[in-house]
Each structure stands twice: as C-alpha cells, then as structure tokens.
Write a structure and sequence with these properties.
Strand order of the largest sheet: 3-4-2-5-6-1-8-7
Number of strands: 8
Helix content: 25-40%
Largest sheet: 8 strands, mixed
Low-confidence stretches: none
Radius of gyration: 17 Å
Shape: globular
Length: 246
C-alpha cells in the first residue's frame, strides 16, 4: 500500500508561491513545473509571458544555460537536430511533453529547488478537455513523472501547475475544465507511483494554488477530483491537502 500526499501550496497572502522558492511543506529537493511554449521564438525555451516569463525573470543569469539544457533534452528525446528543425517550423499538431532540466542556486533560485519541469499543455477550444485532449493532457503529466523517476537525484517534492488554464484554455468554462484537468493530473501521478512505488513513494505533490480569486481553480478542481477517488483530506498545522491510497 502506498499513500500519495498532495498539498495545496500558497504564499503568505494566499496567492501563488514563487515557483523557484523552497517549500515549507516538504523537506528535501523539489522540482517546479513551468508552463512552456511551442511558439516560434520561444519553442521549448524559457521566456515570453505568463509563468514562462516568471521563470525567465527568476533564472536571470542562468537562462542561457537552462535553455541550452532544454535544447539538448529535446534532441535526446526526439533525435539529434529536432529542436533546431521544430523551433524554426513548429510542427502541427504540436509536440507536447515534459522535460526536466537542472537549475542552480542563486538569489532568486532557492537551494532546495533543484530542477525545472518544462511542460507544454494543449491549446484548447471552448469544448475544453475532450476525450482526445484529456488523453494528451494526462500524457504530459505522465511524461513529467517519468522524468522524475529517471532522475539521478532523489526528489522530495514536485510543485505542479494546472497547464492550459490561462490563455491556452481557449474560453472553455473554468469549472468543468478544472475538474477534468485535476482528474487527469491525479490519474497520471497515481499511475506513475503505482508503476514505480519504491522510487516515488516519498514524493509529495505541491499544488501551486491561488486562493485569492473568485474561482480558486486549483482548490475546486483538485478537491472534486480527489473526492471522486475517495481521498482522505487533512488540514492541520498550516498544511492542507489530501492523501490518495493505492
């Protein structure tokens, strides 16, 4: 029997926590998920706006090194020269996956944050996560968990974001999208832990959460998806979240 711990993680004001910060919820190294891009000019690179832009500001002087690591990781996964080819002429349908690269401690990058999980979500329409999109979405998080499994470092926490929940949502209604996205993410995580229990049994999932909004999508979506799985919820000593037993 394995239990997976999911924590809702916010800053002191209840908003999103700095993605490159340490976590008070776990002890040990963490990796933090970035919402990346397949746009020309920042194809599988750190930059632009949104969360990807926030990572660019935080990485500052090491951004060139990190982007080079992304190019190498992309070629390692898809073949030599693929990043150069695809970045000049982005494929259709787009390549959607997750790549883990290391980051170094700095004034902005706290020492316990050792890696960035660069994940690119689908561009949705008002239909939201259809069955095909749901499968694609799940695979992105499955790929992320596989990256953690294959890491040569023991990772204690994975700080996740809800991909495609901003401009990539395409006008899909937020409530059903949040429910479907959270369910997809939990599916991928549970599958990975079930397949690699010894490697992942101590991995905590840190859900970067904004509670200071009219519809807190992370709380709503993950709570609904967790209830559907029969999760056990907890709220004690500043820690809020749920446990899923496999």
């Amino acid at each position: 029997m394995v239990q997976i711990s999911f924590f809702f993680e916010s800053n002191a004001e209840g908003g999103y926590i700095n993605a490159l910060s340490e976590s008070t919820l776990v002890s040990g190294p963490i990796v933090s998920q970035n919402a990346g891009s397949t746009n020309y000019g920042i194809y599988y690179q750190v930059g632009g706006g949104g969360l990807n832009g926030a990572f660019a500001k935080g990485l500052r002087s090491q951004i060139s090194t990190v982007n080079e690591e992304l190019r190498l990781a992309y070629d390692a996964k898809f073949g030599d020269g693929c990043w150069a080819k695809h970045s000049n002429n982005p494929p259709s349908p787009p390549v959607l996956t997750s790549l883990l690269v290391s980051v170094q401690p700095s004034e902005e990058v706290k020492k316990e944050c050792i890696g960035m999980m660069y994940s690119v979500g689908p561009r949705l329409t008002a239909a939201g996560l259809t069955s095909n999109e749901y499968a694609c979405y799940t695979q992105i998080y499955r790929d992320a968990m596989n990256e953690i499994t294959q890491s040569d470092k023991k990772i204690s926490g994975f700080r996740i974001t809800m991909l495609s929940s901003g401009i990539y949502r395409g006008g899909a209604p937020i409530a059903p999208f949040a429910d479907a996205a959270a369910s997809s993410i939990i599916d991928a995580i549970c599958e990975a832990v079930a397949n690699h229990p010894r490697r992942l049994e101590d991995l905590a999932i840190l859900i970067n959460t904004n509670t200071k909004t009219e519809f807190p999508k992370e709380v709503k979506g993950f709570s609904n998806a967790a209830k559907a799985r029969g999760a056990d919820f907890f709220s004690e000593k500043g820690k809020n979240g749920f446990l899923i037993t496999l």
